[in-house]
Design goal:
Strand content: 5-15%
Shape: elongated
Number of helices: 6
Largest sheet: 3 strands, antiparallel
Distance between the termini: 33 Å
Number of domains: 2
Helix content: 40-55%
Structural class: alpha+beta
Strand order of the largest sheet: 1-6-3
Length: about 200
Amino acid sequence: MQSAIEICNAALTTYLGTQSIVSLDDASPEAEACKLHYDRVRRSLLERWPWLWATRREVLVQEAINDRAPAWSFKYARPGHLLRIQWVNEPTAARYAFEGGQAQDTPREVTARAIYSDTADAVIEFTRDETDPTLFSAAFSDAFAASLAAAIAMVIKTDRPTKQDAQRDAQMLLDLAIAQDFNQRPARELVPVPDSLAVRGLR
């Protein structure tokens, strides 16, 4: 099982050649930098791709008062742990769209607290703001460590070439993690492929 400390130590020792830490609360520049940037980098990587291991599906809870009627027929509460919406739809319609190779999403408006839609009994599929590192794929964790190293390189090493090397490795490892995740999906599932992977034949 991997932990946040293991990801931080991979960033520190593999890419920055510095000492490891025992806790994010250690009184060291390394621990302070990791603590400052860990969650920001984690969320940034989660937003880059609809990771299978971070994908959740929930029935949306309809609000009693719809303050944007008649523009939208329904107002739903936005899930608190939502990071990136993949689709909002009625379950049967979403399944038929999937089986037909069509997009599963429907028109919607999203605010900080609500999701407005014309779909009754809507279900949402989304990327969860996943904080449990034991659920991260190994490839994602590798990309996370390199990305974290790039984020803290100038604080720890004040060395631009080291930062650039970490950035290059981070992009390469992120592309690999996305490709592995993509290859686990059914062939008919419609998922937008990043430009960096399209040239490799994944689009």
